């Protein structure tokens, strides 16, 4: 799963030469093989490295504050999404919904590496979400729909249909 | 289309509802559409219209690139949800152009244009009231893409398509179709249609199609877009 994500990320970043990856351990942590020395371990580390390689430092955040926020979301992705239980999903979605209420992208006013990575992580969750829940976490749905239409992000994942069902709008703005 | 009068709370509410599940006025990138609507607002929306406020702050950050955003600026009445009376077209094309001159947040000529803005405001108010009393009805339409699945690969897809197309309903217009392979030699029929929301429901359509039990195993909605 993580390996396909990383190759999608490479395409998103416009990296021409795909890298070699492998996994280690039960949790299938991705490893980036490099010619010099030990490989890079971990989704966040590799993603950051790829962004540097693609010479897109703006994707890591334009200011110190933005960079911190990007790192925070990358950590969130690995720490909470990878090993979460069904009950946690509701909390995660609720947190995300509140956070995204006044934001278009996760960090700042432009896309960063946190957005596609959170999108990949959340994709299986949102795929299984009922229409009612999609309405409930409207901001997450909006951000998710935005991400899957952003040029270069979606790649290997099937699009999730996002329909605004007028029946449920009475309780929301 | 259109949001109604964007200077009125009702218009802002329409904008807020519209933006609840969208990041931008049109499509998924900032464009001249966003610039047009942004310019029409007289200021930041209040905090209780959280989606409008979010969008407003986001577009404000694109201030410097305003001119280089993609798309063509259209009259304000062209944007927004279908089904809302277009109150700006009362002023005609002049109304559309005046949107730019009127409330130009990034310009410095506001003093000189206050006379003009007053006149335009009154003109638009009169047009809005006239429109309101006439109450034109706009038909809400949607474009639906249906996936019709056969029982197996022996099913005659041409016959199936013929049967599906015989379904006639008021407000339903069949569109293009194509066969998409799903694996093991089975193909599904992807057929599009345009329906009027009030007259045709998707459950009805699905029932009518699944009634052809010999050919159709199931029907799914692959895509549903409002026009």
TrEMBL record, chain A:
Signal peptide: none
Superkingdom field: Eukaryota
GO cellular component: aminoacyl-tRNA synthetase multienzyme complex; cytoplasm; nucleus
GO biological process entries: positive regulation of DNA damage response, signal transduction by p53 class mediator
A Pfam family the protein falls into: Arc1p_N_like
Gene3D superfamilies linked: 1.20.1050.10, 3.40.30.90
Protein name: GST C-terminal domain-containing protein
Boundaries of every GST C-terminal domain copy: 49-171
Matches recorded under SUPFAM superfamilies: GST C-terminal domain-like
From TrEMBL, chain B:
Span list, region Disordered: 83-119
GO cellular component terms, semicolon-separated: cytosol; eukaryotic translation elongation factor 1 complex
Keyword Protein biosynthesis on entry: yes
GO molecular function, one term: translation elongation factor activity
Pfam families, per database record: EF-1_beta_acid, EF1_GNE
Segments forming domain Translation elongation factor EF1B beta/delta subunit guanine nucleotide exchange: 141-227
Keywords: Elongation factor, Protein biosynthesis
Record-linked InterPro entries: eEF-1beta-like_sf, EF-1_beta_acid_region_euk, EF1B_bsu/dsu, EF1B_bsu/dsu_GNE, Glutathione-S-Trfase_C_sf, Transl_elong_EF1B/ribsomal_bS6, Transl_elong_EF1B_B/D_CS
Acidic residues bias locations: 96-115
Domain named Elongation factor 1 beta central acidic region eukaryote: residues: 105-132
Family: Belongs to the EF-1-beta/EF-1-delta family.
Role, per record: Catalytic subunit of the guanine nucleotide exchange factor (GEF) (eEF1B subcomplex) of the eukaryotic elongation factor 1 complex (eEF1). Stimulates the exchange of GDP for GTP on elongation factor 1A (eEF1A), probably by displacing GDP from the nucleotide binding pocket in eEF1A.
Subunit relationships: EF-1 is composed of 4 subunits: alpha, beta (alpha subunit of the eEF1B subcomplex), delta (beta subunit of the eEF1B subcomplex), and gamma (gamma subunit of the eEF1B subcomplex). Interacts with elongation factor EEF1A1.
Descriptive protein name: Elongation factor 1-beta
Organism whose genome encodes this protein: Alosa alosa (allis shad)
